[in-house]
Amino acid sequence: MPSVSQADYSACFRPVLHCRESENFTRKDPEGRAAKLPALMAARPPNGQQTRMSHYPAASYLTGAYEPRQFCADSGAEVAFAGRSNAGKSSAINAIVNRRGFARTSKSPGRTQLVNFFSLRPEQRLVDLPGYGFARVTRAMQDHWRTLLGSYFENRGSLAGLFIIVDIRRGLGDYDAQMLGWADTLGCPAHVLLTKADKLKRGAAAATLLAVRKELGATATVQLFSATKLLGIEEARDALEAMLMQHRKPGTSAGPAAG
Questions:
Q1: pLDDT at site 248
Q2: Cβ density class 120-134: b for 16+ within 10 Å, e for less
Q3: By the number of CB atoms within 10 A of the CB, which of 130, 174, 184, 253 ranks highest?
Q4: Strands 115-121, 60-65: parallel, antiparallel or unpaired by DSSP?
Q5: Do residues 187 and 31 lie in contact, with contact meaning Cβ atoms separated by under 8 Å?
Q6: CB 203 within 8 A of CB 235
Q7: What's residue 89's pLDDT?
Q8: CA 103, CA 61: separation in Å to the nearest integer?
Q9: CA angle 147, 130, 218 (to 5 degrees)
């Protein structure tokens, strides 16, 4: 299979990720959901309740969508996970859900080629998006992903938030910045996981965390994370819960999504 250059892959995703100029990406945020995320994360349930809530005992795989018509019904709330192909996205999902093998992991980057939907609770979902970066895929698959993700981003009223998975050793890349820009345009809360934090010494990891927080400001919340060392898992679950419970579908005035 021929390799795909960085320039080719950038060209593939640019129509999807450069969304500030698109009239389809103008969802408003009158409730200030993005700004409320840190406070919601801090408001933890009483001892004993959070563990049961965060481990999602009823979590299950729903479907993998190759075409937009295969997406789950656009109801309730869902949080999407995005990141470079080798940033540890699947491992992060498995650790947060506390289910080994829940999202498929692979030694070969770029194996997630569908938009995969998982149920966490009734009307609350997690969505695993195809990885971006240097995944080796054909030109036809690049074009297909562009159409698939474009349809997802433009039309999902149930989208409650975005997790961006970043290898702490690589730092934020152009694609990550584009995803953060898209979330900011939507008024969609964004949370950055600096994964593989165990690969750095504690001081270096803390310095990187401070630098990324300073760089992003109020654009996104940021944390250290390690799936192998179980670092930052509760904090990540809190962020996921805040997004799911605070979400209101555009045009509605109902309370938080049912749990």
A1: 67
A2: bbebbbbbbbbbbbe
A3: 130
A4: antiparallel
A5: no
A6: no
A7: 93
A8: 9
A9: 95
